[in-house]
Amino acid sequence: MELRDLIREMVPVKESLTLTASGERPYVAVDAAHLTVVVEAGVDAHLVVLHQEPKSAEVTIRLAEGASLTVNELFLAEAFASVTVAQGASSRLKLTAVELGSANASYTIDLAGRDAESEVNGVFLTADGEHARLAIRTNHLSADCRSRSIARGVAGGRSVGEFEGMVYVAKDAQRTDAEQQNRNLLLSDVARIETKPQLEIYADDVKCSHGATVGQMDQEAIYYMRQRGLDEPQARRLQIAGFVGDLVLHCNEDRLCEAVSALLEQKLSKM
Amino acid sequence: MLKVKNLHASVEGKEILRGINFEVKPGEVHAIMGPNGSGKSTLASVLAGNEKFTVTEGEVEFEGKNLLDLSIEDRARMGLFLGFQYPVEIPGVTMANFMKIAVNEQRKFRGEEPLTAAEYLKMMREKAQIVELDTKLTSRAVNEGFSGGEKKKNEIFQMAMLDPKLAILDETDSGLDIDALRIVATGVTKLHTAENATVVITHYQRLLDYIVPDYVHVLYKGRIIYTGDRTLALKLEKEGYDWLINDSNE
Amino acid sequence: MADKNEKEILHDLTGEEYKYGFTTDIETDLIEKGLSEAVVRLISEKKGEPEWMTEKRLEAYRYWLTLEHPTWAHLEIPEIDFQDVIYYAAPKPKKQLGSMDEVDPELKRTFDKLGIPLEEQMALAGVAVDAVMDSVSVKTTFRETLKEKGIIFCSISEAIKEHPELIKKYLGSVVPYKDNFYAALNAAVFSDGSFCYIPKGVRCPMELSTYFRINAAGTGQFERTLIVADEGSYVSYLEGCTAPQRDENQLHAAVVEIVVEKDAEVKYSTVQNWYPGDKEGKGGVYNFVTKRGLCRENGRLSWTQVETGSAITWKYPSCVLLGDNAVGEFYSVAMTNNFQQADTGTKMIHIGKNTRSRIVSKGISAGQSQNAYRGLVRVNPGADNARNYSQCDSLLIGDRCGAHTFPVVDCRNRTAILEHEATTSKISDDQLFYCNQRGLTTEDAVGLIVNGYAREVLAKLPMEFAVEAQKLLALQLEGSVG
After folding, report:
1. Is C397 in the A-facing interface, judged by CB distances under 8 Å?
2. ipTM value
3. Judging by beta carbons within 10 Å of its beta carbon (0-12, 13-18, 19+), is residue C430 exposed, middle or buried?
4. Cβ separation of B93 and A242 shorter than 8 Å?
5. What's the CATH code, domain B2-249?
6. Domain ranges, ordered by start, for chain A
7. Cys-Cys crosslink for C224: which of B82, C103, C193, C471, Cβ 3.0 to 4.6 Å?
8. pLDDT tens digits, one per residue of C138-188
């Protein structure tokens, strides 16, 4: 099913949305310049944010105590999005951002209530002439919170990919468990990756780690795949898809997964 | 099927193969043995087309074509299969998806229609049984997190899926316990027909208890210095290579 | 009782006190406070420098005037009045004491803990040492050996006069005055420093150390060091002193330049333990240093630093890997306690092919201190097969300190493989309990654990340095636990 058709089945959101009860159908915001979403206590929801136009967007999300939200944000155009999420106690956020080309996405997650948990995944793929930026800032403002941010970037042609991560642990945010990981693939000699995986820590009883890598395609794997009859471009595409695939496919729903992975395939054929 | 004539190959300027000659006919099983560093794995890699190695001299004919002119993938699609000594992990790429592409590429090469999803699933289930491979593994990433035994079973599973004319198995027995060895070796035997051929590269004769070779070649310093029948393997097991090496160092 | 004494002593050790001794009987050696072209000319004149050097200084000074004080570091730096600084005070006299009995007992205690021989203690504390240690003769023997090999090791002032061709060629070639605010300031007013030249193919037979020159030149406020390792040569250089140098100067803005020619290797080790200020964060040295080396083909530069002193440490010893196959290394232990602040790390700039770099940084924060690692790994488009591995760990002791990591990885070559890892940990109660149970005091246990944590870096130091550094770490941690 194409993404367009899938979106028609979802509940459209314009400017603001307050969710007081859990529902089956996902909510969708398409090219919203301003969006405010409040998920009330104990409510479980799924939101799709889509950028089809090169516009800027400001998204503010608040999760009340025990609320749970899955967000899939998809960039199909060169949009600038700044997303702020304030999480109450024991709330859960699972956010996945996919930039299939030039885009600028910044996320600020405030873990403001005890026992809140966030998982933010981001992917960018840039082909010749594109520039993508992904920034994830997680503020541990309260004790006993957990966060995980995983970002993967692939840059081909003459393109630039930037990742900026920050885990901030406030003075009293004891027993914080934060993980930040960024891995990148450079496909061409003129592509560029810049990554800043940062930590700012003011509490001592914390488990914080981060890692960042920049590397190239695994030639051994390409050889292996060719030995089984795949040609080189196929093997390369498959490897890139494997590199970002598990993150891209954090969709909460099979049909959305299929639609996104079809878009990914299209993108890969241009890289 | 395969004719290798005076094959020389080098890596980073160092000559590893120094004039290999042998011929494989349909229905045959060949074993290549030899001490460490004699060039066994290099021979397998060169036949598969690994670009790390440079062929400096000689000819290889496969199914009437000049093998050395073909790309890695065309050799594979024509039915040359290499079972890797160290199967490569490919993160994020599921076994099922990988094999589906591989099988359909081969079919396209032969001018056949791609398999439907149902046909493919059925085929996968059948072939997995040959090596007692847990079908759950096919939904995992290629070789990632597989145990040593699983990796080798997975190689033979892929061999079954691709049904090659010539399978070259590079140290498929290394690192296997006795049960896994039996399963892998039985799998290979089951896949053997009068139309295809198998070349097994091994250190140990124990594999040859299952996969009975018609010819045993001893490779030493980049040359085949002796060819015998299966009894040669037994003799090598008992007496080592010294008697042969001394002979060849005249 | 003992506590009180210690506090009093510590109070006496604050920077305030040093200002007193400063004005006595040394007025002739001082120039007026403040900075102007006239002052820059005067410094140059006092040092008897040739005209070209004066011009170099003035050029830097004029450029410095156009700059603003940088604010990007994770540091709180009180505003510095650059007109309130005396830019020339040489030879910097130390208050001469009659005997070891006059030495501050706290300082004495520190020396003893560090295991510094008595003669050296006296030298460091400023006791007249004529009979005990003839530093001049030590220096002389030492220089004879070097001379035989053609190695030049002298003060930078001397080098400007004696080896103008080398100075003209290399000074400012790695750290130009336009590099940053403090590099410009240093280029204008540097007081003294060391110059070292290792000729082609020579392996320096001993560890070179400014330690040998401590009485001769003293450590200036604006030190300038230039090390040139010509083709195929090797030198291991130890910077500064390992004892708590009592120093009147608040602001230290040194520049270290290293030129590693083809096939040469330089190891540069620093153990920095300047006065960190008192337990309330009063006083202490500001240590704002620019250190950089340039490596040509197959050149190898290894920075090792143990930073335990200074109120504020702000420096990034860096490697420009210009030639093919050049290797850069940075091993660092930075410990901050009380109200100390550190923002330190490195830059590895990969320009040549097959260049490799390795970064191991171990931060230790205690008390209410702030400790940041800041680093840059950059791979230029031509740097095929560049490799970097970075590991930046932080250890927190207590819940009022901060540990931060600000790495930047900028990769413009697809054949490069770069890895960065960082972890943050604390000394666990379980570890302490385990050690206590085996009879160790908590203080010893912390010292032990910290040294274990820093071992990978300490192991890179020359033996005798490593031993002192280990003791320093433990010493600096006193009072941070329990």
Report:
1. yes
2. 0.85
3. exposed
4. yes
5. 3.40.50.300
6. 3-217
7. C193
8. 444 566 778 888 988 888 888 888 899 999 999 989 999 889 999 999 999
